[in-house]
Specification:
5-stranded parallel beta sheet; 11 strands; elongated; alpha/beta
Length: 256
């Protein structure tokens, strides 16, 4: 399969390598450009870090904040935090509300938390943590800037219906990919690609656009996502054994 890896660098390069190791042909073409914000970290003291993306980890590595307990939304972020020497590292189940629950079990209300986040971020887990009495400070540690135009290799592949699948790791990345394809006049070809999404939240822009050929991993884990790289037609027929056909699918939810 020819697989478009739309994930930003450097993580996108690692994913492309994994796709190739599975016998597929990756097309590495990120639609977001990640960069550290350069904003200084807020003055503490803080009791713990809140991490909802691995993209925030480089801003913390080697700083005094790295010694704080790091509460991470999922496996990818936790792995990056551990590799950078942060910690101790605590991992939630890949969901922002699960992260809030994890912190609620581990830390007393009133604890001072530093959320190292991107410029564009979701309300959770911040809203829940603040409502429960935690003192949360948000630090914009990085920004994800969308590309101005669809990457040329992707445009060429779409012109020839030469893409079998695309991998999406964030809601914003999926929305940006769709927007760039639409602006480039390739939306119809984009709709014919099987879009494999890390979670239902990531797939939301595709669902809103009525794109039927999308697949959602049964849990937000890259191993599960990549296991789902099997051909999916633009109008797949839902069958009772969908979950057996691909370990990345949950029956009745992911094939639309």
């Amino acid at each position: 399969m020819r697989v478009w890896v739309a994930r930003p660098l450097p993580a996108g390069a690692r994913t492309a390598g994994r796709v190739a190791a599975l016998g597929h042909r990756p097309l590495l073409a990120p639609v977001l450009d990640l960069a550290l914000s350069g904003a200084p970290a807020p003055e503490g003291p803080f009791d713990a870090l809140v991490l909802t993306s691995a993209s925030a980890v480089p801003a913390l590595a080697g700083s005094p904040l790295a010694a704080l307990p790091a509460y991470c939304v999922g496996a990818r972020t936790a792995s990056a935090a551990q590799a950078a020497g942060l910690g101790p590292v605590h991992e939630a189940g890949g969901d922002a509300l699960a992260l809030a629950e994890l912190i609620g079990r581990a830390l007393p209300r009133g604890a001072r938390l530093l959320h190292a986040a991107g410029r564009e971020r979701k309300d959770e887990p911040g809203d829940t943590l603040v409502a429960r009495g935690y003192r949360l400070t948000v630090w914009v540690a990085y920004a994800a800037r969308p590309l101005a135009v669809l990457p040329e290799p992707v445009a060429a592949a779409l012109d020839h219906d030469a893409l079998d699948a695309a991998l999406h790791y964030s809601r914003r990345s999926a929305a940006t990919a769709l927007g760039l394809a639409r602006a480039a006049g390739r939306e119809e070809a984009f709709r014919r690609v099987a879009h494999h999404c890390l979670s239902a939240d990531v797939a939301a822009p595709l669902v809103t656009a009525g794109i039927l050929s999308h697949v959602v991993a049964a849990r937000p884990d890259e191993d599960v996502l990549l296991a789902g790289l099997v051909p999916v037609g633009p109008h797949p027929v839902r069958q009772d054994n969908d979950a057996e056909a691909s370990p990345a699918l949950r029956p009745g939810l992911e094939r639309c």
